[in-house]
Input
Amino acid sequence: MVSRVIPVEPFDLIIFGGTGDLAKRKILPGLYRRLAAGQMPDGARVIGAARGEMDASGYRDMVREALETFVPEEDRDADSIDTFLALLDYVPIDAKGEAGWPELAALVRKDVVQAYYFSVGPSLFGDLAARLHKHEIAGPQARIVVEKPFGHDLESAKALNASLAEHFNEDQIYRIDHYLGKETVQNLMAVRFGNMLFEPLWNAQYIDHIQITVAETVGVGGRGAYYDKSGAMRDMVQNHLMQLLCLIAMEPPSRFDPDAVRDEKLKVIRALDPVLPHHIVRGQYDALGEEPSYREDAGDPKSRTESYVAMKVHISNWRWANTPFYLRTGKRLKARASEIAVVFKETPHSIFDNEAGSNRNVLSIRLQPNEGMNLDVTIKEPGPGGMRLVTVPLDMTFADALGPDVEEVPDAYERLIMDVIRGNQTLFMRGDEVEAAWAWTDPLIEGWQQRGEVPKTYDAGSAGPEDAMMLMHRDHRRWREIKP
Output
């Protein structure tokens, strides 16, 4: 199978924070890969804008170094790199002042797609939007891309949305969540809504429960001071896990259209029940050898911020009544893995011996690493000796299933940036979606703060606190093993 690469229209992409870590690690390497794949047209330009004083030549040198660092050697081509660097320009700019804005206005073209990537802290979003408007740089079809966090709570999210809405319409604002750019996440919609096989079974009658896991092996490290003000709930659950929950639980949209999809996601968030205190477990990783504990990383020996959270969630609608969703995410766990597991109910009556009772159908969707899907099915073990049942996976690892001729699965940022240029908002969060997520999250955070709860410690390299295991055991269920 050979994948198709469809070039986008000519564009100007302006990266505010163009010398920052995200630009060097993800945005610029992603754009280079799109050029190497033939998706960026000859008329594309990328303009870095940041506080640092340098000229276009200095910026190209910096980007060349970033590509050599963050793009694997086998993916680099000298001619392609030279072609990419020739598309670059740079403007020193003051986000809160007037310096650099006239120069940027002179560079940006009015007759091509304009995309403004705010790869900066949220405190600067309003300033950048205001100056793009004041200097009449952004045209009526311009798009802005904003990174999370989309606020710290409901109040700040509303203020952030309002500051952007002063100068841009909602259909011009692209709130990027890289999890939604993963190939498997989009394939989840294709599997659900493009195949008759699953959708009739996608409900409380046939599904016992659903597990969503996002596990990381890294700690908070040098981000400790920042992370300690957010924690796993704000950093992961409110956005990444919430979006995965919406896609797995939403009703079929009337069409594959940005607002139709996001309308259905919003309904899921608004149907979420409040989570009971005994259905939430919070944890902090402990020290392991020379590796510091969370509190040491955070620089606060009394910190009550969680590096791990697990919870049992219910959705109050006809499709999911009484079907639990178990969410967990954490730092310094045993493996780096992101997975959605749809666990189907047992057969209502087994015609085989009791050994069949432990065999369930499980659809597992792996987001990282090795993106793909498995469906566990029960078959007879080959050979003589009676009807012995075993569970085997039907494997759909993309790299294996699609063959060697298919283009390597693009990084999430590559796909999402190209969607911005196309003007496709399907995989981006809408303002009311963000606010609804915070409206559900805030009471949970306020609740454990009022109760003075201290997170449970867990061993680094483990699967998390023992209390999280008990959360499942009380329901006679078990977490799936966290595998690399």
